[in-house]
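Lay summary. Proteins are chains of building blocks that fold into shapes, and those shapes determine what they do. In this project we predict the shape from the chain. Here is one chain we studied, written as its sequence of building blocks.
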Amino acid sequence: MRQHDKSFMVLEVAEASSGYEERMIEENNISALLKFSKVKVNGVQQYNYCISRMENLEDFLEARDLTLDVFRRLILNIKLAYEEISKYLIEESHIFLSKETVFLEKSNDSFKVSLCYYPCDIGGVQQQFRALMEYFLKLVPSDNRELAEYIYNAYDLCLKNDFTFEEILDSLQEKEPESEIHLERIDPYAFDDNQEDEFLQEEFVTQGENLSELFDIDNREKSNRFTGLFDSVKSFLSTRIQFKDEYESVGEDFIIDPDYELEERTVLLSDVKPTGKLVYDGQNQEDDFLVNKDVFRIGSGKNNDAVLRERTVSSNHAKIIREGDDFYLSDLNSTNQTYLNNEPLVYKIPRKLKIMDKISFANVNYIFQ
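And here is the predicted shape, written in a compact code that computers can read:
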């Protein structure tokens, strides 16, 4: 919901369970909580939470790569928010912890978290955070095994009924790299033949260990640190040999017959996804964009698929979702709104696009084709 230049998240409440907590929130400026007001609509109590210039956790992570640093900072700020709220004797079960109700400031560098007070019992912090961890697991890139290990270890901790945020954060501390043995770099031309034996025996001795101890591959207990290095080098050399063989075989066997035309594989129509186009309809220096992704993000921030230059455009302004042959436009709680055919969009409610629809990101106009 939007009123003038402010936007709100609206939640209905069947029956509030604590008038004391609401009085406490009204009388104190609790920065860790979203500010809210109450109104009755058709006999139903509504809580309107001000979310201007914020984005919920789902939108926040959709616009960024999930890294260990981002994940750790998120958990830390959720922990700090709970610590502040606890000072005012507010029940943890009255904090709505989900990807839709945790909000962050719209800034690439800010991780300030604002939580949602909801005056009904919706479960303890451990129960809700466990569900949030399951959401994080789905976001781990398949090729990032290190991050997956950290988040799975954190999730294992969440399976305990009495886990704490401190335990989660401790599990996310990066492991200290194993000590490496550094060989002193010696100029091979800096000694004469008579010094060669001395060079081999003394200059490459490392921290109390001699060469026979370091490179005795059969003595596994003494050289475990080098086994991985040895295997890596062996793998690398094998790969180079393989590439060399492939290159040589290509050079010897692949002969182009000038009278023979190579036939390209025919692409099935079912493999081709539809592509939309945003055509700029203005006098400034904006670009046209091909909408060629399932999630296509628009804004002034550099991490978007369509980067707009106009300062009235929010950093993460809107997105277009491709579902089958259809495209849907959504506003991302932008400051100056997104319009479809001059009608403002409601945050989180997608609208289906048609050819020649007029889209306005603040005052920047496009035609969808």
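What the prediction tells us: The first strand starts at residue 2 and ends at 3.
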